[in-house]
Amino acid sequence: MKGLLVAAAALLAFGTPAAPSIAAEGMPGATVRPDGSTAPGDRKARFEQWCQDNPEKCREMKAKVEQRREECKANPEKCRAELQARVRERFKKADANGDGQISREEAQKGMPLLARDFDRIDANKDGMVTLEEMEAALKAHAGAGKGKGSLR
Ligand SMILES: [Ca+2]
Ligand SMILES: [Ca+2]
User: Fold this and answer.
1) How many whole angstroms from 37 Cα to the centroid of ligand 1?
2) What's the mean pLDDT in 29-36?
3) For position 140, what pLDDT does the model report?
């Protein structure tokens, strides 16, 4: 479950470039798998740098993440539902022409992180990412390195 949150936080963090890996930061053991593009150490360093520059915001953010984690531990179903809703909302916004699929161009404009991993997330390689493919990628990411992804 933690892993799913990390993955989602990564996917949903487009709007906050200053704090891209905060969820991962607070979650030892749920390391984001290095997929070649960004080394986790680099992201961690960036986060620490950001923390030094914004100590108060950093504390606030960490407290929020911690709180969120507690909430999710207490009520994972609710957390997952919220997460899905956010992913869907994000998806809809990025889907500029409203055909229910994200093209590479749409991803580049609306979801840069998706654009980065486009080929991996586009499971059937038709050049478009559907909501199903995106959710599947999130789940796969969540299950990575944990041996089980019992999210169905
Ligand atoms: Ca579209
Ligand atoms: Ca596809």
Assistant:
1) 25
2) 44
3) 81
Residue 37, helix vs strand vs coil: coil
Mean pLDDT (the chain) is 78
Ion ligand 2 contact residues with beta carbon within 5 A: 122, 124, 126, 128
Tell me the pTM.
0.56
Query: Ligand 1: distance of its center to the CA of 12 in Å?
Result: 18
Residue 130 φ/ψ region, left for φ over 0, alpha for ψ in the -120 to 50 degree band, beta for the rest: beta
Q: Contact 39/16 with Cβ under 8 angstroms? A: no
Structure tokens at 146: 């944990």
Nearest in space to 35 (alpha carbons), one of 103, 114, 107: 114
**Bridge partner residues of 120 (DSSP):** none
- Which pLDDT tens digit goes with each residue over 41-65? 888 999 999 999 999 999 999 999 9
CATH number of 2-12+21-26+38-143, picked from 1.10.10.60, 1.10.238.10, 3.40.50.2300, 3.40.50.970: 1.10.238.10
